[in-house]
Fold this protein.
Amino acid sequence: MAEGFFNFLSKQAGIAAESAGVGAVDGTPPSLPAVLEMKRRGIDIARHRARNVSSVAVSDYVVVVALDREVAALFGAAFPETSDLRIWVIPDPYGGSAGEYREAADLITSHVEELLRSVA
């Protein structure tokens, strides 16, 4: 959802985000509740597929965002050369209710807007 929001909101700035997860399984589609919540907001993430961070050239990115402290710690240990690692505290809604997805999406939107102000 974070990649979808960022890329939707940053089109005019000419910058883009790509997501990857510490425990992600390459090729996994987003959960249906995530797709539905994003669709409700006018953003289509149905074709998105997960990537594991091990398949990404981390040094190619200017900013790396972890969605919780545990992931940030794992990422920082695996990629100590990362110079700009930011931590957002977003409860993972996976397996939760539509309301939990809505709350996560609201938090993500706020953080993405703030990030765009800082990098654009």
